[in-house]
Amino acid sequence: MELRIKSFNNEEIKDIFLLNKTNRIMKKKIFFLCIYCACQGIVAQNTLTTNRNTYRAADKLVKQQVEYKDPGSSGRDLNWDFSMLQPINEEYSLNYFFKNKKDSTLLCGQEHNTRYYYLQKADSLWAVGFENSTTYMEYVVPELKLKFPFAYGDTLYSPFEGAGEYCHRDSIFVKGYTRVMADAEGELKLPDNETVKKALRVRTIRHYTETGKDSLEMRLDTYAWYAMGIRYPVFESIKTTLSKTGDTKDEKGESMKDTTVFTTSFYYPPELQTSQIETTPLPTNDENITPEISKVFTEGRFMPNPVETNLNIEYKLTKPAKVWFRLHNNIGISQHTTAPENKQEGYHNTTINMSKLITGTYTLYVHVDNMILKQVVVKK
């Protein structure tokens, strides 16, 4: 098995850091104004959703490694002050991309020289493996990372198993379980002294045993804080503990206790979370789905549905209009867009070839002038 790890050019990340101070301040003000507006309303709750929080190909993040901060207790109406944390590494990048451009469900996230693979299906995000220059691991039983929607008080449990190789010669196996809990809400003060209200904390506890040349039991605790309106976490604390399996003794003949081997925290500057996806914005709520379109776009038929190959769209216009169609997968990435055409009053039809798309649920957006109609399409 040949492992080829691509070295990514960090010039774009460095360019981001070279933005002048004025632009950085303006971006922060815009971001926190959006957060403030989103958090208004007594009943507002920070909920992670498929549309707003799944990973996306072509997204680039900058994680600034800072001093480790104990996450504190769980509960509601808490206050976290991370404003005094000192930076350790300010150029730690994370990039997402498709491993195979023909498969929009298998996503790769690259940090340093390690690639982590994720499977996004319907309302769930699964970890399916990872690889780097020394280790290859494939989960034969995937690990559930998140299930949407996910709000305060929600809990997930997922067993997982994997098999792989170390240094192309030693077989290794991993088995364990993951528990994910939205265990805290409150106000979060970030290292740049900005404050996020209604922050949601998601705690992931990962217990696993790795067997191979050496056998180890490990526990990985990850705490991630999410802000309303931001796809990825804005802050993260990580702690790893390990012990030898079985009745292992130390040099004094005493049973070994769990040992903390790694702790760190990361700050994700929200203004440096960027996307390279060049598509026009999708409607964000039902207010943008205009009811007036039904007076112009009539007798619409979308057949067959479920579809295997070609989706045939038949419709009637009650007046001349510019019409085009956009097909998006369940994580909002465009799969097909027709060219806008000026249509006369009367009957028309359009065909969209879906034969090369993977099985799943898609959303078809019908554009008629400045009006939009939404239609769900299932691919068999």
Describe the structure.
By secondary structure, the chain is mainly β. It folds into 2 domains: 11-275, no CATH class; 286-379, Immunoglobulin-like (Sandwich). It is built from 4 helices and 22 strands. The protein has helices spanning 11-17, 21-38, 50-53, 293-296; strands at 59-66, 75-81, 87-98, 106-111, 114-121, 124-131, 135-147, 155-166, 170-189, 195-211, 216-226, 235-244, 259-267, 274-275, 297-303, 310-317, 321-328, 334-337, 341-343, 346-353, 360-368, 371-379. The chain has a 12-stranded antiparallel β-barrel. Strands 17, 18, 19, 21 and 22 form a 5-stranded antiparallel beta sheet that branches. Strand 4 and strand 5 form a beta hairpin. It starts with 10 loop residues before the first helix and ends with a strand. The model is unreliable at 1-27, 29-43 and 275-288 (pLDDT under 50).
Uncertain segments = 1-27, 29-43, 275-288
Shape: globular
- What proportion of the residues is helical, as a percent range? under 10%
Beta content comes to over 45%
How would a crystallographer describe the biggest sheet? 12 strands, antiparallel, barrel
Physical arrangement of strands within the biggest beta sheet: 1-3-4-5-6-7-8-9-10-11-12-13
Radius of gyration: 24 Å
**Mean pLDDT figure:** 80
Order of helices and strands: HHHEEEEEEEEEEEEEEHEEEEEEEE
- Contiguous helical run count: 4
Termini separation: 33 Å
